[in-house]
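We were asked to recover a plausible sequence for a given structure. The inputs and outputs are reproduced exactly as logged, with field labels preserved.

PROBLEM: sequence recovery
POSITIONS: 288
GIVEN STRUCTURE:
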């Protein structure tokens, strides 16, 4: 009997304890995850001058200078516009390697050997000049990092996507070619090409990327960013789809390579950007 009574008392005690625990509210319920956090982003304008460089390009690397302007609605979402110009480009290792195998001058009869010369290949390449476009951003993560237990700084990570308008400067093969519009026998030391549309002009396509901000104080941050753009282009400036024009002169039919917009294909263009972000207004409040 004593054992039964003791067991019932134990059950009663456990039930009372559970009821008390259920009634007792969690002291951290509905409380913010971080208190006294500096609110770097909400309702602030961010201006980020930056330098950029392309990578994994086939023929030319482009160096960019420009800026991004962004307005932050809250801690997570923002929208903005970026504009960059490329005053300088350089050949890739692949371009230098190909040019080392090409002749210095065009062959006399390019019907037999249509290989371009070194200068013809280099002059045919397009050059990326301008990249502009709007975007929206999402900042899902923030935190604090420390170096050697003495230097601490805040950071956040953001992702963005939008539309890019890209201007390419066309190559110039005019001094290396004769065309079917000349209505004469193809010339020696000339490439027999009809350039109906050059490989330059404006193109539009999607852009996306991600970046990291490291805050130096309440209104200045270092910025590093990866950017991906997908647009149509004809980097080499030559025929890519194999179509031809034909002209008959004195009962002889001559074949001309056709270069037009159909030779452009969708290609990835990627950049790294490095810069500094400046926030306005300069004062950033703290959370409760």
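RECOVERED SEQUENCE:
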């Amino acid at each position: 009997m004593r054992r039964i009574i003791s067991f019932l008392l134990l059950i009663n005690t456990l039930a009372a304890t559970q009821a008390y625990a259920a009634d007792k509210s969690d002291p951290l319920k509905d409380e913010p995850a971080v208190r006294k956090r500096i609110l770097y982003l909400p309702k602030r304008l961010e201006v980020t001058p930056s330098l950029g460089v392309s990578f994994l390009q086939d023929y030319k690397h482009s160096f960019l200078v420009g800026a991004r302007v962004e307005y932050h609605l809250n801690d997570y979402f923002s929208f903005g516009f970026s504009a960059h110009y490329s005053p300088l480009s350089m050949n890739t290792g692949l371009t230098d390697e190909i040019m080392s195998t090409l002749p210095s001058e065009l062959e006399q009869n390019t019907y037999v050997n249509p290989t371009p010369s070194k200068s013809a290949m280099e002059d045919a390449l397009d050059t990326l000049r301008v990249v502009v476009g709007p975007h929206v951003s999402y900042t899902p993560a923030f935190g604090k990092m420390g170096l050697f237990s003495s230097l601490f700084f805040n950071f956040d990570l953001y992702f963005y996507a939008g539309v890019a308008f890209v201007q390419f400067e066309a190559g110039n093969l005019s001094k290396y070619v004769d065309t079917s519009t000349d209505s004469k026998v193809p010339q020696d030391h000339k490439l027999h090409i009809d350039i109906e549309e050059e490989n330059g002009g404006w193109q539009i396509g999607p852009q996306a990327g991600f970046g990291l901000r490291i805050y130096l104080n309440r209104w200045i941050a270092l910025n590093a960013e990866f950017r991906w753009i997908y647009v149509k282009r004809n980097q080499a400036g030559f025929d890519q789809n194999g179509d031809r024009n034909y002209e008959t002169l004195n009962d002889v039919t001559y074949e001309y390579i056709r270069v037009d917009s159909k030779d452009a294909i969708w290609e990835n263009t990627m950049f790294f950007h490095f810069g500094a972000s400046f926030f306005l207004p300069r004062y950033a409040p703290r959370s409760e």
